[in-house]
Write a structure and sequence with these properties.
Number of helices: 3
Distance between the termini: 52 Å
Largest sheet: 6 strands, antiparallel
Number of strands: 16
Structural class: alpha+beta
Strand content: 35-45%
Strand order of the largest sheet: 2-3-15-14-13-8
Order of helices and strands: HEEEEHEEEEHEEEEEEEE
Length: 223
């Protein structure tokens, strides 16, 4: 089998959430951070023929890049053969028991759906760039004065620079706080749903791709 460019991009993104992954037979991929505060799931165009674990996903993907158009042969036990023309790589699987994995056969649902807004590719890119330029660790979805705005700042420093963008309207007052380091999502436009129970869902508008990201405990929501 051959992995498409979009599948490779998704796997590269997943490697930033957890360096390891367990592939399950079928077309669904899921990963979870070691701290279990980020979970991502997607459906790919390929059918994975068997269950197997990869301990260092970045290394595995870099190995694939040694080939122009690699084919993956899963007919052997314990390893996959990556081949192209006269070139071969034998890459051994990892024990799934040593990899932090999402709960099996358990769909994630938000306990409540309190705030919804759309986040465009451009808005996401500018927020992340601003966080990097000003070295700001926090991202907050703030509801006040009738609007929802996303703000990057340093909540521990009242004189810190900040950058904000309005993403919607609301009649509620809230401050849903995230760590920038947890916003490890593929570029794109997302429907974002936030629960006051400290969990959010980012759903990509172009792909079957969802991220569930935990909020910080100092988040507030006025009922």
């Amino acid at each position: 089998m051959k992995l498409s460019d979009i599948t490779l991009s998704l796997l590269k993104n997943f490697s930033t959430i957890n360096q390891s992954i367990v592939f399950k037979q079928g077309s669904k991929l899921r990963t979870i951070s070691v701290m279990k505060n980020i979970l991502a799931e997607t459906t790919i165009g390929e059918e994975i023929p068997k269950d197997f674990g990869i301990y260092d996903l970045t290394q595995f993907l870099n190995g694939l890049s040694l080939h122009h158009s690699p084919q993956l042969d899963f007919s052997n036990d314990g390893y996959v053969v990556i081949k192209e023309g006269r070139m071969r790589t034998k890459y051994f699987f990892a024990d799934p028991d040593v990899i932090v994995t999402p709960p099996e056969d358990k769909d994630v649902t938000l306990p409540t759906e309190d705030v919804t807004f759309e986040l465009s590719t451009d808005q996401l890119d500018r927020l992340l760039k601003a966080a990097a330029v000003y070295q700001l660790p926090d991202l907050s979805a703030v509801g006040e004065a009738g609007v929802v705005k996303l703000v990057v700042s340093d909540k521990k420093n009242v004189t810190s620079n900040d950058f904000s963008v309005i993403v919607g309207e609301t009649d509620k007052n809230f401050a849903f706080n995230f760590k920038i380091e947890n916003i490890k999502i593929l570029p794109g436009t997302y429907e974002v749903v936030v629960s006051r129970k400290l969990l959010s869902r980012f759903s990509n508008k172009d792909y079957d791709l969802k991220y569930y990201i935990a909020l910080e405990p100092d988040s507030t929501f006025d009922t």
